[in-house]
Every structure is written in structure tokens, then in C-alpha cells.
Amino acid sequence: MTVRRLRLVLGDQLDPQAPALAGFDPALDRALMIEAAGEATHVWSHKARIALFLAAMRHYADALRGRGVPLTYVALDQPEPASLGDRLRAVLAEDQPEALVVAEPGEVRVLEDIRRACAAAGVALEIVPDRHFLVSREEFARWAAGKRELRMESFYRHLRRKTGVLMRDGEPDGGAWNYDAENRKGYGRGGPGEIPAPAAFAPDAITREVLALVERRFPDHPGRLDAFRWPVTREQGLDALARFVDARLAQFGPWQDAMWTDTPFGWHSLLSPALNLKLISPREVIEAALAAARERRLPIASVEGFVRQVLGWREFMRGVYWLDMPGLAEANHFGHRRALPAWYWSADTQMNCMRQAVGQTLALGYAHHIQRLMVTGIFGLLAEVEPRQVSDWYLAVYVDAVEWVELPNTAGMALYANGGRFTSKPYVASGAYVNRMSNYCQGCRYRPDRRTGADACPFTTLYWNFLDRHEDAFAANPRTSLMARNVARMDREERTAIRRQAETLLDRIDAA
Length: 512
Ligand code: FAD
Ligand code: SF4
Known about the structure:
Elements: E1 5-8, E2 29-34, H1 38-41, H2 47-66, E3 71-74, H3 84-95, E4 99-103, H4 108-121, E5 124-128, H5 137-144, H6 152-163, E6 167-168, E7 171-172, H7 205-217, H8 234-247, H9 249-252, H10 272-276, H11 282-296, H12 300-324, H13 327-330, H14 352-364, H15 369-382, H16 387-397, H17 403-414, H18 431-437, H19 458-469, H20 471-476, H21 481-488, H22 492-507
Parallel strand pairs: 1-2, 1-4, 2-3, 4-5
Antiparallel strand pairs: 6-7
Helix pairs in contact: 2-7, 3-4, 6-12, 8-11, 11-12, 12-17, 14-15, 15-17, 16-17, 19-22
This protein binds flavin-adenine dinucleotide (FAD) and iron/sulfur cluster.
Flavin-adenine dinucleotide (FAD) binds at residues 268-272, 275-276, 309-310, 313-314, 317, 368-369, 372-373, 377, 394, 398, 400-401, 405-406, 409-410, 413-414.
């Protein structure tokens, strides 16, 4: 049969209204989905991340078949080639369609692979806009045009005005644009107390088959599958959303920065996997939060704090990614060259905060934002790790990791690798921050208040070392000049002792 348009649906484009399928003509068109081992190995992916994509793709394919959509499904276990691009090329050579239609991929590398495959097969490529996002790449570029520094806050206010979300008579609902000051609480001595459990989905037969396949094909990959709990269908994604909004949204705001031992999820939504695979849309997530806020008069600080993440940060990061690639992937403002500590892959470290954050990451494929930013992220910066190695780790180990959102967060926010293009200062903190926001330090062999000596906290030593090394730059920035003054107050001996301690620590970081 002659195929007019082959319509490729990628593993993170599982919207039932997928733009690649718009205008589908069953008599002439064919849908195409491709599982490729190369997508699991180009970074050393967590088993749960591989399983999530495959399970969701297989459920989606079943739904397409149920709708009578003609589908070519290239399964992982089909013989070589292994890479997505090569597999696509083989299908194009076989089917010889007039055109391949695909929605904008979420990663430059994938886009280039698809372009190359089409060029090699002599097939026209039609890239259609990804309507999942509220802001198109073009609109973001227009907003950013002429701005040297991009600030999420100003983009977010622009979007609030444009969409009317949380606005009343042209002013922000509740009278303020943000409630950050109320949204930074630690749990306090008593700990988090009872937190209603987030939705979890027991694997069905399709998912169980995928879990077995992943164990078989990728046995030495990081992470575990025994706690696999993620939504793999749109219905499950919607269920997760409803249960978050019902039971957890009200308390999301105040505790969103708090961390506690054996409390991997806190009050967070866990919606990023369903959102990033496009099982659910940001519009319906925001709508659900706003509807609950109206019906149940939820605290504005929690509702705004949550909406800011989805409407603000998520859209902003996607815009920045496409604006600043490919340079963002190579950015290395501080010229850091050290290797990622080996225990990022094992959690085998004496630093309790890292053991907790990395440990739950390996167990679940999940850590919440502050664990990613202020624990594993900042440590990568303070330990002078080459940004690419850090961002490859983030892309590998989280179930929600897709490059358009992972890379700007890692290179831009956590590592300041792009020199402050969208953050006004590097996020750095000592063990005092971890101690304030968690109980991790209580179970640690190090002491957060010590910067030198045998029990000095590595975070604290490296924080002061970092300030010492970058004192001039910190002094020149009004947002960090206070930090520079603190380091300037230290005497020469103290500074020398910190430098020595930091050197020794960095040289033996795998033993920390
Ligand atoms: P919640 O805290 O409940 O937030 C609600 C939603 O808001 C999230 O589901 C997410 O869609 C969105 N959101 C929140 N913060 C951000 C943010 N900073 N950027 C973009 N969207 C945001 N998020 C990913 O989706 N994929 C990644 O690969 C990823 N990598 C990250 C790497 C680093 C170094 C850092 C600091 C952050 C990263 N984030 C990433 C952002 C954020 O940590 C996760 O979105 C969040 O932890 C997901 O958990 P949740 O769904 O419970 O989020
Ligand atoms: Fe982390 Fe330092 Fe606290 Fe230990 S003392 S948990 S290393 S911040």
C-alpha cells in the first residue's frame, strides 16, 4: 500500500490529540511509533525512566489500534539497528512515504536524527507545532527579543496578564504576584507529620511485561523497578491530577522547599512524568488547580506557588531551551572540569543529604525540586564538576527527564553554567541551608557548621571555598555582595585552611 504521510509519534508525545496525527486519513496515512535501545543508552538511563517511556508508549499504541488507526510499531526487541534515527531510516526506506510528519521533538538531538533519516531516505519532513505548551517557541522568542537577561518572573507576569490566570481586574489575585516568602518553610522539629499519599498505579500486564523486558535488556543500568508507580495512561495521569488537587495542593505552598528523611515526595504533585509524556496538558493541570481553589477556597500561597511552577517555570524553561541551544549544552561559565563523584550513581556516600537525595532517586526515579536544586545540583557546582557530566546524570536518572526541561534547570539554574542568562546569581549554599530545611544533618557524620577539620561538612567547606575563589564576582553583584563581605571578613589563615581542606576533599571526593 502506498503511504502518503507517515506520522511519527515520539515517546514523549502521547497526547490523544497528538499534533502529528491531526488530519489523519486512514486510507492514506499511517502512524509510526519506534522503541529504540539507543534512547535508553545515550545517557545511562535509570531503569524506571526506560520503563515509563516504553510502558506509556505501548498503552498509547493499544489505544490507537483500538481507534482503528493503522500503526507501524517498531518494538525494542526487533533486530538491529538500535538507534532511533537508524530505525526510522529503515522504516522510511521500506514504506517510501511522500512525507514524514512529526510534532516538534523535545530534544535537539532527536530532531537532528529525524532530519538526517529523512534526508538519507529522500523523504520530505513536515514538522508541526507542539500545541501542548501554552507558549509557542516563536512567541517566546518574540518575548525574549532584545533582552540580554531573561527573567522567569517577568515572563510569568506577562503570561498571567495574557491568560488572566489568577488575575482580578487586571491585578494579581490576592494582591501579590508571588508568595515566595510564605512558601519556604522547613517542617520544623516535629517533622512533616501525616501527608496524604500521592497517587500510585500498580503495573498492569503491559507494564509488567515492560518491567521484565527492562530488567532483561538493561540489567546494569542504574535504579530499581520494584517501586514502579507512575501513571502510564491518560486516565491514570488525570487520576493523579485529581488526587493531588483534592488532597495535597492545599499544603503544597508552605512546604515545597522542605526535605525530610524517608519523605521522598513531601506535598509535591508528582505530575511531571504525566505532563512531560503529554498524557495530560498544562492547561488542564492549571484549570484543575484553579477550580479546586474556587470550590474549596484553598490558600492563595499554595495555589499561586503551584501555578507558578507549571505556567511560569515549565513554559519558561522550554522557551529558553530552544532559544539557547546548542550553546546551552556546552556552557561552562566557571570552566569546571572535575568528574562527577562516583556515588551519584550509587548513593554510597557519608554525606547524609546526598545519600537521601541520590538514594531515593535510584529507588524511585524521583526527587523533588529542592533536592535536585539545592542538594545534588549545588553540590555539583561547588565540587566544580563539568556541567555536561552533571546534566547527563540528571537526564539519566529522573523519570520526568526530557532535555528541554532538564538542561535549562541543570546548566542554567543549578550550575550557573550559562553565566546568569536567567538567574540573577549562582544558587550556592552551605550545610546551614540543608540543616535549616531538613533533618538530614542530624543523621550525618559531618557537622554543617564546620568548614575545616575532620568533621567539616563538605557542603560548608566547598561553599566557603567557592566564595573565596569568586570573591570579586560576588562582590560586584548586588544580590551576592553580602556573601562576598562575609568571606572578606575571614582572616588569611582561615582562608588558607579552607582552601587546603577543599583541595583535599575535591581530590578524594569519591570517599566523601
Ligand atoms: P511539583 O513541585 O509538584 O511542581 C509541579 C509541576 O511544575 C511539575 O510537575 C513540573 O511540571 C513543573 N515544574 C516545577 N518546577 C519546575 C522547573 N524548575 N522547571 C520546569 N518545570 C517545573 N523537571 C522535569 O520535568 N524534568 C526534568 O528533567 C527536570 N530536571 C531538573 C533538574 C534540575 C537540576 C532541577 C533543579 C530541576 C529539574 N526539574 C525537572 C524541575 C523540577 O525539579 C521538577 O519538575 C519537579 O521536581 C517534578 O516533580 P513534581 O511533579 O512533584 O513537581
Ligand atoms: Fe549534608 Fe553537611 Fe548536613 Fe551532612 S552535615 S547532611 S553533608 S549538609
